[in-house]
Amino acid sequence: MQIDEFTLERIQSLYENLVELNLSDSGVHPYRLNELLNQEQQQELLSIELGYGWTNGSVQLRERIAALYSNRTSDNVIVTNGSAEANFLMVMSLLEKGDELIVIVPNYMQIAGWAKSLGVKVVEIPLLEQDGWLPNFELLEKSISANTKMLTICHPNNPTGSTLPLEQIQELVNFAKRHDIYIHADEVYKGAEFDGNELPSFADEYEKAIITCGLSKAMAMPGLRLGWLVGLPDDIYKTWQCKDYTSITTSAVSEYVANIVLEPTFRHQVLTRSKEFLIDNLNRISEWVDGNSWASFVPPKAGGMAFIRYDLPVNSTELAHEFRQELSVLILPGDVYGLDGYFRVGIGAPSDHLEKGLERISHYVKHKYGV
User: Fold this and answer.
1) DSSP β-bridge partners for residue 305
2) 80's torsion region: left (phi>0), alpha (psi -120 to 50) or beta?
3) Is residue 284 within 8 Å of 323, Cβ to Cβ?
4) Is residue 1 scored above 90 in pLDDT?
5) Which of 33, 96, 277, 303 is spaced 20 to 30 A from 346 at the CA atom?
6) Is it the case that residue 45 has pLDDT exceeding 90?
7) Rounded distance, CA 329 to CA 286, Å?
């Protein structure tokens, strides 16, 4: 099997722990366990037996997750080691050689890369900045063939932070229904909408939706490596069979914490903290863009990142390496999304961290490129 290098993850894996200021992350600055658990819960955590649990996730946790969606039960849920494993299992179990997968790009390209390695034809439908990073439904209709099995979208979008208006969510659902295909939606940034109105899940709008989600991004707990898939019971059972060949089970410690933080009131508190954090930093980066004539962006509506267009005579990967080597600042180049001329900045970092990194970038660009 040949699999393409996952350039986004490779760049972060190589360098994020070697720089002073990592602005490449797309999540919210993470919690510490003692911020989440009271003293009684901390003692309970210490007494957990570190054995195997349910290999598809405990019944209690799957019921807790199912309650986040309309008309779903524990049979509609599998718990995974992060949303990355959820994506992996979904592709493994539901796509086959000869199938076609429509990928709305830019996107987190794990699914596309893994699907290609299995002989799935990947058809990319671009979002364009001039359209507000929203899909073109004429292109979508032209992309359908007899072999199309699934459409995948990251919503809210990575890296642009765009969100679909409610009428476009329904239009996408109607498109999938007409052609009887799956919609896969990566919803790891759901709950971090800046206007305070959490968008509906595609699982609430379409029976054949398959949802990837987890605690890493909007919930600010990436170290727990706790994710999930929501879908039709038969499809979820297929992913469970595949999980026997991957990690088998998730961490008993992570499941204990997940049961606590996904309680509705607690989840609301976590997401409120995330939105306050992100909105404050969005204001900071908006001011920074306004003060740098070579930079522009469509302000994100959700999530932990801003996607910056730049007007400089340099490739985005080269620019990212310049910032890393000269400034000890890591940003993510647009090349990893197939969009040179852009870079992604995480706005979930501590505000002083973000400000310091942006200040270094401004100073460097002014002196090297004269703008």
Assistant:
1) 346
2) beta
3) no
4) no
5) 33
6) yes
7) 19
**Average pLDDT over the chain, rounded to whole?**
97
What per-residue confidence (pLDDT) applies to 166?
96
For 109-136, give the secondary structure using H, E and C. Answer: CHHHHHHHHCCCEEEEEECEHHHCCECC
Do 310 and 342 meet the contact criterion of CB atoms below 8 Å apart? yes
Structure tokens that stand for 142 in this block: 């032209």
How far apart are the C-alpha atoms of 229 and 227, rounded to whole Å?
A: 7
List domains and CATH numbers for the chain: 7-32+267-364 (3.90.1150.10), 51-263 (3.40.640.10)
The answer to whether the pTM exceeds 0.85 is yes
- pLDDT, tens only, 208-259: 999 999 999 999 999 999 999 999 999 999 999 999 999 999 999 999 999 9
Q: Are 103 and 114 in contact (CB under 8 A)?
A: no
Instruction: Write the Ramachandran bin of 82: left for phi over 0, alpha for psi from -120 to 50, otherwise beta.
Output: left
